[in-house]
Amino acid sequence: GAFCVVKGTLTITGGQIAGNKADRGGAIYCENPGSSWINLNGGKISGNSANKGGGIFMYNGYLTMDGGSITGNTAKNGAGVYWESRDAGCFTGGKITGNKASGEGGGVYGADWGKIYLGGDVKITDNSNGNLYLSENDVNIHNTLKIHLSHFHTN
Fold first, then answer.
1. pLDDT of 103-151, one tens digit each?
2. What is the CA radius of gyration of the chain?
3. Among residues of the chain, what percentage have pLDDT more than 90?
4. Residues 6 or more apart from 131 whose CB is under 8 A from it?
5. Residue 14 and residue 127: Cα distance in Å, rounded?
6. Res 20 pLDDT > 80
7. Exposed, middle or buried by CB within 10 Å (0-12, 13-18, 19+), for 154?
8. Cβ neighbours of 146 (radius 10 Å)
9. 100 half-sphere exposure, CB direction, 13 A CA radius
C-alpha cells in the first residue's frame, strides 16, 4: 500500500491515493491498539486493491471520516474499509461508494467488537456485496441513514 501507520497518526485533507496494491490495505494499512489514528477529512482514496481493505485496512486503531471519498477500490472483504478493531470508528461525512468486494462488505467490513458510529451526512452507497457488513460490532447511528443491501451478523 501507499501508507503504513503503526503507533502514529495520518491525517488526509486533500489529494488522491490511487492505484496501489497490497495483501492488506491497498492504500492505507493501520495497526496498533489505542495509539494509531487515521483522520480522513478530505481527498480521495480510489482504484486501490487488496485481499482485505482495498482502500483502508484497520487492525486496532482509530478511524475518523468527516470528508473525502473512498471509491472504486476492490478487495475480497472490505473493498472500501476493512475494520477489525476494538477501538472506535467514526463516520460522519464523506462518501464510501462504488467499491467492489468479491466476498462481503463492499463499503465497510467491520468485525471484532469495535465501536462504529454513523452520523452526519456520510454516504455509504452503491458498493457491491453490501454497503456494510458488521459482525460483533457495537453500532451507534446518530441521524437518519439509508442503508441498502447490508449484512449484520451477531451485533
1. 999 999 988 766 788 888 899 999 999 888 887 656 666 555 545 444 4
2. 13
3. 62
4. 96, 106, 107, 108, 124, 125, 147, 148, 149, 150
5. 23
6. yes
7. exposed
8. 8
9. 5
